[in-house]
User: Which sequence fits this backbone?
């Protein structure tokens, strides 16, 4: 199947208002009114890219991967069923909350809720950052990336490549096992890291990444994080594989956020998959 991009991300929050303040005042997203116990966040032309749902738990709730159209979604369901994966149709309510024309969902081997969709709705008017972020790098590259920690990185890699059609960007064995996957030129839209290394046996969303065009915007956001005493979980640094200049902070839902600039793009015609010796060229101290 031909997944185009990471279209949207759903989070669960015990304190959605705290996440809203963080997402707008610190990260610069635009809050968009939601339904009942949901709040949406806009970062580009789309109605929203991130949704937070009030819950009795914190963390990643669902991951929305975009397909070209209804035919592609039907074909994807057939492919899933050939692999023994039964995808369920979204309810009308789920379609309304996500603002998409069609969606099916299933669980990956670690138990994460994967959603395949088509027909995203555009937002009204221009994206207007809650502070002064000019724009985020999205479009056909998707909203950014997600990094999921799970006990069995190899099983996740097999499922996402063999069944969902992602391509390997690179892998890492030390200091922890990781696999980085792409589905468009963005270096990785999803990566899997070894959960037990991080001291947690349950699958969890380690972080999501948002990218801006300007390195100074990363620096200004870093200053803001320090001024507001948000916990910095990794200092400024540059990743060895996607070359992202970024830092990590802990959001009020426990999930870390990576805010970065300068990520490389992959051309499948020339890209060589390698095993990288470590995650960072410099920095990212924790
Ligand atoms: Fe990242």
Assistant:
């Amino acid at each position: 199947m031909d997944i185009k991009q990471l279209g949207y991300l759903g989070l669960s929050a015990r304190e959605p208002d705290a996440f809203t303040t963080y997402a707008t005042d610190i990260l610069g997203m635009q809050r968009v009114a939601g339904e009942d116990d949901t709040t949406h966040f806009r970062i580009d032309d789309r109605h929203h890219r991130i949704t937070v749902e009030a819950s009795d738990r914190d963390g990643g709730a669902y991951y929305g991967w975009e397909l070209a159209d209804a035919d592609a979604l039907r074909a994807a369901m057939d492919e899933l069923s050939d692999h023994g994966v039964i995808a369920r149709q979204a309810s009308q309510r789920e379609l309304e909350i996500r603002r998409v024309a069609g969606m099916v969902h299933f669980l990956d081997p670690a138990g994460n809720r994967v959603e395949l969709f088509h027909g995203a709705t555009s937002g009204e008017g221009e994206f207007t950052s809650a502070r002064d972020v000019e724009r985020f790098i999205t479009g056909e590259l998707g909203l950014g990336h997600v990094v999921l920690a799970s006990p069995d990185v190899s099983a996740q890699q097999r499922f996402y490549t063999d069944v969902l059609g992602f391509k390997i960007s690179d892998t890492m064995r030390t200091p922890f096992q990781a696999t980085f996957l792409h589905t468009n030129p963005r270096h990785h839209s999803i990566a899997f890291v070894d959960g037990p290394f991080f001291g947690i046996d349950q699958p969890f969303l380690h972080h999501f990444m948002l990218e801006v065009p300007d390195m100074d915007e990363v620096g200004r956001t870093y200053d803001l994080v320090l001024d507001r005493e948000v916990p910095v979980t990794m200092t400024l640094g540059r990743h060895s594989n996607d070359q992202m200049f970024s830092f990590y902070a802990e959001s009020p839902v426990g999930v870390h956020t990576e805010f970065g600039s300068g990520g490389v793009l992959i051309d499948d015609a020339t890209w060589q998959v390698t095993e990288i010796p470590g995650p960072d060229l410099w920095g990212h101290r924790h």
